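Long-time lurker. I teach an intro course on protein structure, and each term I like to show students one example going from raw sequence to a predicted 3D structure in token notation. This year I'd like something fresh instead of my usual example. Would anyone be willing to generate the tokens for the chain below so I can use it in lecture? Attribution to the forum is fine with me.
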Amino acid sequence: MSHDLPVQELEVSVQTAVFLQKLGVTTVGELLAIPVLRAPKMVATELQLVLEDLGVKYPGELQIEAPKALRTATGKILPRWRIIEAYLEEYHPGLAEAFRPPANSAQLAAAEVALGHPLPEDYRRFLLVHDGQDDGAPMVHTCSLFPVTSLAAEHKALCKLFPSPGDADEDLVGAGIRPVEYSPSWIPIGRSARGRDFLCLDLDPLPTGRRGQVVLVSVDFDDRPLVAASFADLLSLFFDQVQTGELKVEEEDAEDMLDMDDVEE
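-- Reply from a regular --
Happy to contribute to a lecture. Here you go:
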């Protein structure tokens, strides 16, 4: 491996690419020449793996930085979302633009009639701001959010895949979730990039659960974990994962970030 290899050619996440840019190194050789390198845990782990793939071991001391405090978004759905949206527009405009224009009240009412269930209030309010996401847009567990007009068809398709509830191992089911493979009262609101995993609103939880909690249904796996206590909390989880770099940023968004004159310290 040539030490002259530009760091820009390394296959790394946006978070690591921004970190390398802030370091001011342009080649792998310059990176390896730093005697003590302090980096966030995710960046340090990724750099170690990338260097190992190149057949190189970092010769200096690699120190893990204490994690920085994340911005938080709590409270009612609309002010919570405004905090998240403002952050996305400033740092990840590509992610912000992937949220669709608002649905209307008639579309929501039609979906609720077709589903046979009223939708949770926080989810309804969000749909009146953004009607889901573009296909393939980042979300928790890579499950891009559906537009409201797709909910009934996606629900019908899942009911066909699981014609009966089926028993699930209670040890594999999240707290407050009925131990079944699938319940007709689970409304899919997003599907993963591989097309086999669904974020579902649980409209019939156990007494210890909460109506509107979010459960992950994977067609190929038996576990049914609790993802979030509500749709609003799902958005906050999304916000956390965007900030930590756990969610992948689109390439055009990454280019925007790397062209920024000022990178937040």
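Some talking points for your students: Residues 99 and 133 are 4 Å apart (CA to CA). The two ends are 32 Å apart (CA to CA).
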